[in-house]
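Tutorial handout. Part one gives the primary structure; part two gives the three-dimensional structure as tokens.
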Amino acid sequence: MFKRLFKRQPRPTYNFEVLPQGQVLEIDDRSTLLDAALDAGLPFPYGCQAGECGACVCRLVTGQLKFEMDTSHLISPGQKQAGYVLACQSKAESDVVVEIPDLPAHSVVQTAGKVAAVRELTHDILEMTVALDSPMAYTAGQYAEIVVPGHVEEGRNYSFGSAPGDGPVDSLVFHVRHVPGGAFTGWLHDADRTGAALSLTGPHGQFALRSGDDPILCVAGGSGMAPIQAVLEQAAADGVQRDVVFFFGARAQRDLYSLDVMERIAADWPARFQFEPVLSEEPEGSDWTGARGLVTDRLASLGDDLPRHQAYLCGPPGMIDAALEILEGAGLGADRIFYDKFTDRRHVPPS
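Part two.
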């Protein structure tokens, strides 16, 4: 009796070029673009690596990809049309070239720290200041992954809530909203955690102010204030002289915060600075005289000037999706809209 021997066929491999570095890697059909880039030591931005955060978004220049999951909750129709994909969910089916958004690069570091202070910003948002064992450099708008050793071992991502200034910092500020059932937010909100040990990795993310002369449009909801506040504080320190319109959405007056910070920034801003809170669930007959309704409805107030802006969006997925539809409908291209969706495990699509 003769046995037939089969030779295992090698996996197909392709060339994978990453711009602007111009480095060409080899990738097979089992590896995601992100895995291949990280294995090669490229400074590719990433966060959750599971298609949840959107940090690894990049633009497909040429080539064919297959996708591990539906990413429409993070990639808007306008971005999809422009070729944007999530590297952590994309596998090559041919030679591919992708482009990473051009951002200041900081080395990702892991460091320990302790909760130095906690103060109440609203009834369900706490400001947490963390003293670091070693400094961290970041760009305003980015975020860190936080672990509580012995309590919350799976990392949670939070945006930096203050500007970094001119270099690495030895303390970090975060705005942490209480999420019902949330492991980290429950831990922080349930007791005084001053002095508690943390582990932090960062910076991560691509959200940051881009260069240009066009007016800046900011839209934030809830704790989405944190990265917008950091971006505007840093822009003020850097002497940016561009008009700003900032619509901040909250449910009721008790959900508003950082009004004093915005007033201070506006007072020193060298160009026009319009900050407008918008309340969606403020009781009728209250003393509130400001705007009511959905924060995204206020975009219409910009009229024909809307397409001239660079847009920066931070907050819950529903708000971001509504804003994207309006902005893209008004003619803003994907290269003029930058956003950070604040997803949690309730927003992760089922596998």
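Part three, for discussion. The longest helix spans residues 225-237. The radius of gyration is 22 Å.
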